[in-house]
């Protein structure tokens, strides 16, 4: 283990053992755009694999567009038996020959175009993978930020409930209230402790997901406070116009082109194959012989094979076109779903910010005033305090859900 890996392991261990301790003080907060940049620059194996595939197809495009190697032959022809006397018969000779076969039709050029199309498809898949990594980082960062805020809000509510516990104990000591109120506070405090454990569990899971994407050293950093920064989304119609250039569709378009070249190559097999021969014969004390010839293969008895091969390539091309149409429908469905989610969550957030949260806080204040005037029981006061917590958690969840829907829309628009 080198120094860098050792340092990363030590920092990660400190982050796990002391999630709000020295590491948070030593490192700058991690912003959402920074997390995306780190993930895209981390040389993810899935991205590197696709680049290697594209390079392999580039190499195959060159390799498969070359002529086949010539065939060189050497033989002793017309040797008399049983004497094996090389000088006895005038036809005995030492022959050298070369044969060059030419692929049928435009097979070489079509093979090169096919491999080039597959290279383009691999590179579009690479671009798609990079966009998916950016989307996953955004989703994970936002999820982690929600559980961080949920822990903060719950701890704050637990502190307020504990303050109410002091009031309940004072009232019980003065004979103003019963022991039930004190026990109720203990119950609610224990329930909040259990909720905090569940929040920490989800926060740890989100942190582990983030570490997988950006590494242990960067993933252990505390998140930046404040509203997350995401690029703005354009209108639904503008996003729909950009779907045609989505890398998932462009990769399938390149695959359709590759399948089309397969169809063209299968059609070329109906053409005759041509090969050229040249031979030179050496005879002892006699004139040498030379010959040049052309051989043509006639596709007379393999037509059925070629018919089925051509039909198969056409079916595979049609299957790839259908896959492309299916992906276009999936992108359209995702756009409609995420745009509806983004829009309706915005409306719901506005209701909570302008009405629900204020009413919950007003209800808490009214319950406290009523309890001070002996017009409400203690249980109602506790319920009002917990209702504020639930409302704040719901609002925080709605905000994160809307940002995650915005991240989905950015993925669809290519941002």
Task: Describe the protein in words.
- The protein has 415 residues and is α+β, with helices and mostly antiparallel strands.
- It has one domain: Outer membrane efflux proteins (OEP) (Up-down Bundle).
- The chain contains 11 helices and 4 strands; from the N terminus they run ααααββαααααββαα.
- The protein has helices spanning 3-17, 22-26, 32-40, 45-63, 107-173, 179-214, 216-219, 236-242, 247-268, 303-372, 378-413, and strands at residues 71-77, 93-102, 273-282, 289-297.
- The chain has a 4-stranded antiparallel sheet, with no helix packed on it.
- A hairpin with a 6-residue loop joins strand 3 (273-282) and strand 4 (289-297).
- It is rod-shaped.
- It starts with a helix and ends with a helix.
- Mean pLDDT is 84; it is low at 1-25.
Record keyword descriptors for this entry.
single chain, 415 residues, alpha+beta, Outer membrane efflux proteins (OEP), four-stranded antiparallel β-sheet, 9% strand, membrane
Condensed summary:
Residues 1-19 form the signal peptide. It contains 11 helices and 4 strands.
Global outline = rod-shaped
Quaternary status of these chains?
A: single chain
**Strand order within the widest sheet?**
1-2-3-4
Give the CATH superfamily.
Answer: Outer membrane efflux proteins (OEP)
Binned, the helix content reads: 55-70%
């Amino acid at each position: 283990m080198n120094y860098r890996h050792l340092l990363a392991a030590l920092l990660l261990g400190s982050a796990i053992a002391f999630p709000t301790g020295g590491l948070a003080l030593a490192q700058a907060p991690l912003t959402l755009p920074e997390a995306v940049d780190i993930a895209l620059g981390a040389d993810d194996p899935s991205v590197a694999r696709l680049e290697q595939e594209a390079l392999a197809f580039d190499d195959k495009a060159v390799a498969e567009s070359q002529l086949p190697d010539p065939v060189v032959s050497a033989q002793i022809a017309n040797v008399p038996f049983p004497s094996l006397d090389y000088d006895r018969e005038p036809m005995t000779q030492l022959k050298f020959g070369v044969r060059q076969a030419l692929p049928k039709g435009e097979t070489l050029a079509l093979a090169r175009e096919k491999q080039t199309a597959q290279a383009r498809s691999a590179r579009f898949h690479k671009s798609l993978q990079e966009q998916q990594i950016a989307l996953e980082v955004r989703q994970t960062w936002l999820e982690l930020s929600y559980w961080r805020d949920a822990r903060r809000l719950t701890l704050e509510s637990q502190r307020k409930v504990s303050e109410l516990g002091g009031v309940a104990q004072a009232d019980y000591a003065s004979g103003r209230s019963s022991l039930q109120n004190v026990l109720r506070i203990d119950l609610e405090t224990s329930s909040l402790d259990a909720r905090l454990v569940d929040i920490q569990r989800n926060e740890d899971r989100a942190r582990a997901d983030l570490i997988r994407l950006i590494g242990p050293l960067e993933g252990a950093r505390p998140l930046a406070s404040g509203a997350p920064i995401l690029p703005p989304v354009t209108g639904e119609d503008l996003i729909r116009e950009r779907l045609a250039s989505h890398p998932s569709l462009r990769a399938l378009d390149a695959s359709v082109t590759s399948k089309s070249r397969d169809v063209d190559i299968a059609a070329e097999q109906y053409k005759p194959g041509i090969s050229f021969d040249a031979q030179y014969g050496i005879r002892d004390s006699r004139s040498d012989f030379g010959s040049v010839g052309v051989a043509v293969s006639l596709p007379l008895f393999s037509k059925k094979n070629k018919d089925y091969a051509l039909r198969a390539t056409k079916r595979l091309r049609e299957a790839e076109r259908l896959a492309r149409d299916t992906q276009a429908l999936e992108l359209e469905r995702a756009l409609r779903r995420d745009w509806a989610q983004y829009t309706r969550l915005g409306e719901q957030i506005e209701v909570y910010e302008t009405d629900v949260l204020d009413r919950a806080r007003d209800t808490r204040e009214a319950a406290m005033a009523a309890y001070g005037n002996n017009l409400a029981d203690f249980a109602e006061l506790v319920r009002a305090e917990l209702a504020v917590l639930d409302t704040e958690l719901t609002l925080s969840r709605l905000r994160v859900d809307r940002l995650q829907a915005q991240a989905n829309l950015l993925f669809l628009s290519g941002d």
